[in-house]
Amino acid sequence: MNLTVSQKPTEVTRDWFVVDATDLPLGRLASVVATHLKGKHKPSFTAHVDGGDNVIIINAEKIRLTGRKMTTLTHHWHTGYVGHLRSINAETELAGDHPERVVERAVKRMMPKTKLGTAMYKKLHVYAGTQHPHEAQKPKALDVAGIIAKK
After folding, report:
1. What CA–CA distance (Å, rounded) separates 15 from 34?
2. Dihedral angle at the C-alpha atoms of 91, 97, 102, 103, nearest 10 degrees?
3. What one-character DSSP code corresponds to residue 132?
4. What is the pLDDT of residue 3?
5. Which CATH architecture has domain 14-150?
6. Is residue 61 a contact partner of residue 78, using CB atoms and an 8 Å limit?
7. pLDDT tens by residue, 98-117
C-alpha cells in the first residue's frame, strides 16, 4: 500500500545551486529556476509548503533573448505622479546599471502570486557578473542547458 507523503516545514532540506546564465534563453532559464525555487523537482513536493532550493544566477548580463525581444520586450511602471508612466526595453536595461533585473522579473512572474510565492522568490539571488558572496554555502552547479535540451 502506498501512502501519500505530506512534507512539513520542519522536514525541508534546502540545497544551494549556482546557474551560469551565459547564452541561455531567458524564458527557459526562468522556468527551470522557478521550478527549483518552488521545489517541484523534488519527490517530496508539497504544494502548501516552501520546499524549494536556493538558486544563484551569475552572468545575468549575458542572457539571450530570441527574436526581436531585445527591442520589443518592455517593462512599464508608474511613478505615482500624474502622467509619469515610464518604460524601458530589455536592450537598454541589459546595457544599464542593473542588468539582473530582467532575469529577476522573468522568474518572479513565473512564481505564485501569494505569500508563499513571495517566500519562495526570496531564495533567488541574481548577479550581473561572475562573482557572488555565497561561496560559504558551497553551491552545486545546476546544468540548466542540459535540462532545457531534454524538454
Report:
1. 15
2. 130
3. -
4. 82
5. Alpha-Beta Complex (3.90)
6. no
7. 999 999 999 999 999 999 99
Compute the distance between CA of residue 144 and CA of residue 8 in angstroms, rounded to an integer.
28
Residue 85 is placed in which grid cell? 508612466
pLDDT at position 90 is 96
Neighbouring C-beta atoms of residue 51, cutoff 10 Å: 21
How does DSSP assign 49-104, residue by residue? S----EEEEE-GGG-B--TTHHHH-EEEEE-SSTT-EEEEEHHHHHHSS-THHHHH
Q: Tell me the pLDDT tens digit for each residue of 5-64.
A: 889 999 999 999 999 999 999 999 999 999 999 999 999 999 999 999 999 999 999 999
Q: Is residue 34 within 8 Å of 107, Cβ to Cβ? A: yes
From first CA to last CA, the distance across the chain in angstroms is 32
Assign 135 a pLDDT band (cuts: 50, 70, 90). Answer: very high
Q: State the cell numbers at 78.
A: 508608474
Can you tell me which residue has the cell 505615482? 80
Domain residue ranges of the chain, discontinuous segments joined by +: 14-150
Side chain identity at 95, as an amino acid letter? A
| HSE of 140, CA atoms in CB hemisphere, 13 A | 8
